[in-house]
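hey
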């Protein structure tokens, strides 16, 4: 059975499948903590929400990129990916806290593209910092 898991094609398919599931799960968690419905807003053409959501997707995928590169075990990769996601989520709350003059969620929901862009860049930037620590 070990020979099965040592196959690079099997490892790639396993990593891909697990990361895809994690992205869906983590996006659902982000959906719970934001005051707007991501996919409804994107369907309406809200570019700020699309940018913020795209940044989250990229951030999550990038964290898993680093986790896959550093940990050959699927379980370790998922564990570090989850830990990285928790840090990324904490970064989201810190961003909201550090902007007391306006509510980030409300601005993004109102299609404030500047706030959506900064949100995207924060998610992407933090994913590199988190990934470097993994």
């Amino acid at each position: 059975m070990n020979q099965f898991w040592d196959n690079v094609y099997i490892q790639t398919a396993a990593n891909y499948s697990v990361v895809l599931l994690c992205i869906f799960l983590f996006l659902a968690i982000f959906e719970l903590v934001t005051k707007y419905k991501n996919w409804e807003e994107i369907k309406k053409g809200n570019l700020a929400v699309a940018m913020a959501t795209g940044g989250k997707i990229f951030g999550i995928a990038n964290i898993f990129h680093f986790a896959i590169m550093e940990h050959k075990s699927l379980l370790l990769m998922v564990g570090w990916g989850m830990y990285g996601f928790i840090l990324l989520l904490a970064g989201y709350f810190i961003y909201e806290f550090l902007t007391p003059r306006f509510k980030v969620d409300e601005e993004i929901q109102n299609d404030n593209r500047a706030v959506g862009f900064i949100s995207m860049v924060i998610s992407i930037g933090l994913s590199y910092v988190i990934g470097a620590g993994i």
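The mean pLDDT is 94. DSSP finds seven helices and no strands in the chain.
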